[in-house]
Structures are given as C-alpha cells and as structure tokens.
Amino acid sequence: MNKKTLNTALYYLVLVSLIVFSLGPIVLMFVTSFKLKVDIMSDSTAWFFMPTLQNYASMLDDRSLVNNIGNSLYVAIVSTAITLFAGCMAAYAIVRYRFFGRDVASMTTLIMRMVPPAVLLVPVFGIWTFDYEIDGTLNGIVLIYSAMNLPFVIWILQSFIQQIPIQLEEAARMDGANPFQVFYHIILPVIQPGLAAASIFTFRIAWNEFLIANAISDRSTRTTPVYIVNSLTEYNIDWGAIMAMGVLLAIPPIIFTFVASKQIISGMTAGAVKG
C-alpha cells in the first residue's frame, strides 16, 4: 500500500468517524422515540422492536408542552426580528458614518458577545425583577435575548456592508434617494446572505437557551428547554417521551435553517452574470 492510498484510507476513516459521532445521537434519539418504556429498558430490543406513536401522542396531548412550544416560537421569532432590525442599522452606522469612538464601539460589540450567559444571570434577574418588573413575561425574555445576540449580528453584518462599494450609494443619492431609501433598497438586498446567516444564529440561540429563561420565566411563560428539564424527576424519567419531545423540538429550527439557507444561496447568486 503506497502513501497516497494510505492517506486516502485515513481520510475516509476520519470522515466516517465524524459522521457516526455526529449522527449517532440523533439516530438514537429518533429510534428511541418510537419505543415503549419496556423496549427502552430491555437489551434484547435495541434495534428490533415494534414501533409505536404513543410517545408522540402523549406529547401532543400535553397542553403545557403545546403552550411552551408556542412561547419558544414567539420568543425566537420576535427576538430574531428585533435583533436583525437593530443590528443591520447599527452595523451600517458603524461602517459608513464617522464619529468619535467608532472603532471602540465596533470592538466592544464583539467583546460583549464573549461574556458567558451565566455571568448575566444574577444582574438580569435582579434588574428584570426589582427594577423593571418584567420577570415572568415573554417580552422580558425577548428583550434579554435580543441584547445577547445583537453584538454578534452587528459584528457579522459589518463585514458584509464593508464589501459594498460606496459608489452604489452615491449613485442612488444622485438619483434623489434619501438615506432611508438607500439603506432599504440598496444595502439590505445586497447583505441578504449576511442577514440570513445571522437569523439562523439568533433563532437557534433563542430556541435552545435554558439558563436565563429558567431564571426569569414562570409557569405560563416557560420555553421548551425549561419544560424539558422540569419534566425530569429523580425517580421517574420517561425516556421515550423525552426523545419524542426532542424530535418535535428539532423540527422548527430545521425548517427555519432550511428557509434561511435558501436565502443565502439566492443572495449569493443574485449578482451572477452570465458569461
């Protein structure tokens, strides 16, 4: 066996290993969601068992879970929309306008994203509870998620705006466009791939975040990660129902990512010129 063949074999071995490690937990979760509790606990029915939809039926019949999924959708969608709306305008202002402390503001946005959510837990809980009294509300969760994701959105959109030739904006102004028209009709269509990428990031963070949501939400405003953790008890863990819940909760982020990814591709090919 020559060196090239050995390198190829090692390459595919590493590739297959990474695929197995990545897809293994997902496949296990999907398969377990169709098992009864007796099949989950039995070693003889690891792969050969009678599939059942009982776990999914019990989850969909749980009104608390349905309400929590609605809470998560509201929080994720609204916080993503607010973050993109504020982030794209802030990024444009940092890139195009000259003002004192512009470089410091740009670097600060990135540094703030490096702060772990656990550091914000105590001050956010105190301010949201005693000063603003918005703890236990969905809008309070939306506000903190928007603030958490805004620095990253500003940072990632700056690189997209910097690649836009300033001549495009100057030409639009010469044609009589005001600053808002330049921004909405020139800048936003061009940075569409960046907006899509940032929306995927913010939506997934808002959908999966647990620590802060657990601290500032109550029974009626719980998100799905909080509901899953609170459904676990020391003496009774229904793994089939939990796995079914995991499969159901994976569907909205997958759909959102698929839709946003199509926007990335269409935005990247929008300026292509046929040769």
From TrEMBL:
<keyword id="KW-1003">Cell membrane</keyword>
<dbReference type="InterPro" id="IPR000515">
    <property type="entry name" value="MetI-like"/>
</dbReference>
<dbReference type="GO" id="GO:0055085">
    <property type="term" value="P:transmembrane transport"/>
</dbReference>
<keyword id="KW-0812">Transmembrane</keyword>
<feature type="domain" description="ABC transmembrane type-1">
    <location>
        <begin position="69"/>
        <end position="260"/>
    </location>
</feature>
<keyword id="KW-0813">Transport</keyword>
<dbReference type="Pfam" id="PF00528">
    <property type="entry name" value="BPD_transp_1"/>
</dbReference>
<dbReference type="InterPro" id="IPR050901">
    <property type="entry name" value="BP-dep_ABC_trans_perm"/>
</dbReference>
<keyword id="KW-1133">Transmembrane helix</keyword>
<dbReference type="GO" id="GO:0005886">
    <property type="term" value="C:plasma membrane"/>
</dbReference>
<comment type="similarity">
    <text>Belongs to the binding-protein-dependent transport system permease family. MalFG subfamily.</text>
</comment>
<feature type="transmembrane region" description="Helical">
    <location>
        <begin position="182"/>
        <end position="207"/>
    </location>
</feature>
<feature type="transmembrane region" description="Helical">
    <location>
        <begin position="239"/>
        <end position="260"/>
    </location>
</feature>
<feature type="transmembrane region" description="Helical">
    <location>
        <begin position="73"/>
        <end position="95"/>
    </location>
</feature>
<keyword id="KW-0472">Membrane</keyword>
<feature type="transmembrane region" description="Helical">
    <location>
        <begin position="142"/>
        <end position="161"/>
    </location>
</feature>
<protein>
    <submittedName>
        <fullName>Multiple sugar transport system permease protein</fullName>
    </submittedName>
</protein>
<feature type="transmembrane region" description="Helical">
    <location>
        <begin position="107"/>
        <end position="130"/>
    </location>
</feature>
<feature type="transmembrane region" description="Helical">
    <location>
        <begin position="9"/>
        <end position="31"/>
    </location>
</feature>
<keyword id="KW-0762">Sugar transport</keyword>
<dbReference type="InterPro" id="IPR035906">
    <property type="entry name" value="MetI-like_sf"/>
</dbReference>
